[in-house]
Design a protein that fits this description.
319 residues, alpha+beta, Aminopeptidase, 10-stranded mixed β-sheet, elongated
Length: 319
């Protein structure tokens, strides 16, 4: 087995491997990277290859003397099949040796949280820690475990239950699954501006992702009469997890509690589709100096939907 640089002729094999892997997501697919405009990012993806077949992949980039994974995506790190511990140790050792051999001094890897794995194990995490990696950053995220045989609304807090039932009984409020990203994006811009940040994606980015991966993105919109008042842009990274990438509302219509209703519809739809979790995303205080600072209010709000904490960890090593 050897590590080689990804080239375009491997695209189909790369994506087939990720789709059949244990821990890969849409954010590891070459098809996903295609939504970026040419030149927006420099990609230096790596593949572990044995006898012409891919055994693992690592999307990423080389910045100076540092290999970083991911680049232009939410999650990266080493994507594997359901491997044994000895192979995890070998993959980590090979990555370190490869990066040293081309003159790099550091490696930074951020994997998807463990709930994204089909078969959850921490072989790679332990292998990295044993071989000298350290945690450099943790983000707190929240995920709702889905149970097909449990009533959804009863799992939520009393106030959330009341808000959902009031919304359902209001004839002026409706939820649609549609492709009105042009209606959603102004809501997204306004919400992000409240926190002095900009969305990760432009409107054109979202439309491009929809074009490239129509089964990996879905838009839930909520309307008061004919006015769009909120929405959730869902990504479907793999067959295990549905991800609320953007959950937004017009605050002028907050009295109609659009987010509780949207969350109910998202959880219901994801449960019926066979997903195991709904990831509601990270909850950091974007205005704090320390990027790990938790947003207590946001975390507590998510807990009202029976969400539990999961962590997105970044591993770092100086070679």
């Amino acid at each position: 087995m050897e590590i080689i640089r990804y080239t375009e002729e491997w695209k189909e094999k790369w994506d087939d491997f990720v789709l059949g892997s244990n821990n890969g997501t849409m954010f590891h697919l070459q098809k996903f990277f295609d939504y970026h405009a040419p030149g927006r990012f420099k990609f230096d993806h790596l593949m572990y290859v044995h006898k012409g077949e891919i055994r693992a992949v690592v999307p990423g980039t080389i910045k100076g003397d540092v290999f970083e994974s991911p680049v232009g995506a939410s999650y990266g790190s080493i994507v594997t099949s359901d491997i044994k511990f000895a192979e995890a140790m070998e993959l980590v050792s090979m990555l370190k040796d490869y990066c040293k051999s081309i003159g790099l001094k550091e490696i930074m890897l951020t994997a998807a949280p463990m709930v994204y794995e089909k078969y959850q194990n921490q072989n790679l995490d332990f292998a990295m820690l044993w071989q000298g990696f350290k945690f450099s950053l943790h983000y707190i995220s929240s995920a709702i475990k889905l149970f097909p045989d449990r009533d959804i609304i009863s799992r939520f807090s009393p106030a959330i239950r009341r808000n959902i039932r009031a919304s359902i009984s209001n004839p002026d409020i409706r939820v649609e699954i549609n492709e009105r990203y042009d209606e959603f994006y102004p809501i997204l811009i306004e919400n992000k501006a409240r926190h002095d940040v900009k969305p990760t994606h432009t409107l054109e980015d979202l439309l491009k992702i929809k074009e490239l991966m129509p089964d990996k993105i879905k838009l839930f919109m909520i309307y008061y009469k004919d006015k769009p008042i909120g929405g959730s842009c869902m990504f479907y990274p793999n067959e295990t997890v549905a991800l609320c990438f953007y959950n937004m509302l017009y605050y002028d219509y907050a009295e109609y509690k659009p987010i509780p209703r949207i969350m109910y519809e998202v959880v219901k739809d994801s449960t019926e589709a066979g997903y195991q979790y709904v990831d509601i995303g990270v909850s950091q205080d974007t205005k704090a100096e320390n990027p790990m600072t938790p947003s207590m209010g946001l975390i507590e709000f998510k807990e009202k939907f029976d969400a539990k904490t999961i962590m997105r960890n970044t591993f770092h090593i100086t070679l």
